[in-house]
Amino acid sequence: MPRDNIPKQSLRKLQQFFTKTLDTNNDGLVNWTDFEAAIESIVPQEDATRNARLKVLRKRLEQHFQKYFWDLCAVGDANKDGNIDLDVMNDIIRGLKEKNEFPEWYEGLHKALYRATEFLDERAITKDEFASMLISWDIEEEAAGKAYDFITDNGKKTMDYNLFSEFMKKFFLNDTVNHPLNLGLDK
User: Fold this and answer.
1) pLDDT tens profile 85-111
2) What fold characterizes domain 6-182?
3) Superkingdom of this entry's organism (predicted)?
4) DSSP label at 180?
């Protein structure tokens, strides 16, 4: 199995990311219910019904997450039950690492995560905004700050969508223990 070739620290990092960002009910599976819960935590339905801008944002978020979820199921849901477990997700990530290729569905995740925080593709985000986004995934603020400093070369590069996407790719590709890109999830 591809997951057998993933270093132990990287497996820990992937498991932490899986449970913090995708497996919202901590049942060891990712399914549409988890995505709905993530959408609700980002833009609550109650808020969306009272605010036209939030209603549009929620609708876009639902569309992006739905596309990502079904694209993910197409590559990771072999028995077609609508569930993806951690082992399968690790196999998918290892496959991405071996090919050093990130398909459209994976880019869809980046866009959904970035846009979920109401950032526009053209706009640069500050270190505080980046940290706030990662804190919402239960990532420690200090770890988020270190990752931001690393990926932006201490602010010399602008954190826009393209750099965020690069960060996400490097997060999954990096096997170096205690590296800032690991967001402290490999400890």
Assistant:
1) 878 877 777 777 777 777 776 777 777
2) Recoverin; domain 1 (1.10.238)
3) Eukaryota
4) G
Distances (CA, A) of 102 to 94, 99, 134: 11, 8, 22
| Helices assigned H by DSSP within 27-140 | 32-42, 45-50, 52-76, 86-99, 104-116, 127-135
- How many whole angstroms separate alpha carbon 144 and alpha carbon 164? 12
Beta bridge partners of 29: 85
Vertex 13 angle, CA 12 and 19, to 5°: 90
Q: pTM of the full predicted structure? A: 0.75
Q: How far from 164 is each of 44, 46, 63, CA to CA, in Å? A: 25, 30, 20
For 80, what's the count of Cα atoms within 13 Å in the CB-facing half-sphere? 0
Return the CA Rg of the chain.
16
- Kindly list the domain boundaries of the chain, sorted by start residue: 6-182
Residue 187 to residue 177: CA distance in whole angstroms = 8
Dihedral sign, Cα of residue 122, residue 104, residue 146, residue 176: negative
Question: Any residues with CB less than 8 A from the CB of 164 and at least 6 apart, and which?
Answer: 110, 114, 119, 125
